[in-house]
Design brief:
Elements lengths: L1 E4 L5 H10 L4 E4 L2 H4 L6 E4 L4 H10 L3 H8 L5 E5 L1 H6 E6 L2 E2 L9 E6 L10 E3 L2 E3 L4 E5 L4 E6 L2 E7 L2 E4 L10 H7 L1
């Protein structure tokens, strides 16, 4: 069963994509739900990264997500804000963000809102870019899986994946299929 962090943002769309693929899915809001034995993966959906960062602390989920990530068989996928939370370093206007405390599970740097505000949003064949982050640094050991105009937009390190775009909003199941099937 794949859990979808359901504290804020577009979690329902991820649940719908997983169920469309025939993958059992559940919403995760508590430590108890996150640590269920039958959970084999977790999605950190898009939304407002500062809000989700605060909720991770408020609900004491941060250390539990990191603990789950230590198991290489446990798959984690972050989209947009979820990718921001997975990053090692988060930047705003080129300087380290004081508003988002990342988990540091992917050794990358990301720039928040790199493509502009809401009006700068756009669609591609693989997903929607809504106030999307841009990956600005990738460490050794992090694989670039997909690029858009020579910029990495889908990366992974082992069982931890992140995308700057939202495939779930366009009903494109390709990424979910690659990770969870």
């Amino acid at each position: 069963m794949i859990g979808v962090l359901a504290l804020h943002g577009g979690f329902r769309e991820h649940v719908d994509i997983l169920r469309m693929l025939g993958i059992p899915a559940c919403e995760v809001r508590t430590q108890k739900e996150l640590m269920r034995d039958e959970l084999t993966g977790l999605i950190l959906p898009g939304g407002e990264s500062t809000v989700v960062s605060k909720f991770l602390d408020e609900f004491d989920l941060r250390s539990h997500i990191s603990a789950r990530a230590e198991n290489s068989a446990f798959k984690i996928y972050g989209t947009c804000a979820g990718l921001i939370l997975l990053a090692k370093n988060v930047l705003e206007n080129g300087t380290t963000s004081s508003r988002v405390k990342p988990l540091g599970l992917l050794d990358i740097d990301v720039e928040r809102n790199a493509y502009g505000r809401q009006m700068g949003s756009f669609l591609t064949e693989f997903g929607a870019f809504i106030r999307a982050p841009r990956i600005t640094r990738i460490a050794d050991g992090v694989e670039v899986v997909q690029k858009y105009e020579d910029t990495p937009v889908l990366v992974r390190r082992g069982s931890i994946w992140g995308s700057t775009f939202h495939p779930e909003l366009t009903k494109n199941a390709r990424v979910h299929r690659a990770i969870f099937l």
